[in-house]
User: Fold these one by one.
Assistant:
Number 1:
Amino acid sequence: MNLKLSITLIGIIFLKKVIAKALSSERKLIKTYNQMKKKKLE
């Protein structure tokens, strides 16, 4: 029971880290995309 619980917790922490990384990289992509659009409009 305890082992299952700890494995679940580790999995949740791992998923949170992966999701956080994905979100931050997505924000960077959106930022660069918006900058490119602004440069094209100028």
Note: The two ends are 62 Å apart (CA to CA).
Number 2:
Amino acid sequence: MSVVLGAQELRLVLDRLTGVPRLVVTLLYGAGLRLQECLELRVKDLDFERGEVTVRRGKGQKDRRVMLPQAVRKDLSEHLESVIQRAVTAAARMAGVTKRVGCHTCRHLFATHLLEAGYDIRTVQELLGHADVSTTMMYTHVLNRGGLGVRSPLDRL
């Protein structure tokens, strides 16, 4: 027979949980998930905009959609972000990279490498979603090669 807790009892239990266990239990209760369903969730199963969780191959091997409670969205989003940040930082450290590396480094490298490959600043601006090209210009500091990076039109004649 299932145990039934009152709302106050549940609050007391949740208040004594922290970190990942609190997130998991909050999702179990807030979305009506089974433990295994919760543990098998992937980032792509979470739709923060629509407030939905897609449970894949639940009991009976059926997919279903359940709500993603507003009360857990912020903590869950922050958790996912910090896990990725830590993973990128750790990977850089394991690779022997001594520079400070984080997720935003990838965006910076994207722009820098496109510019190094000769793509025009306006294209890179558009891809980055910058409203003003001056924001994109900050990525050109690594390209400061003077006239050495430019081929004279005279040489093309």
Note: The chain has seven helices and three strands.
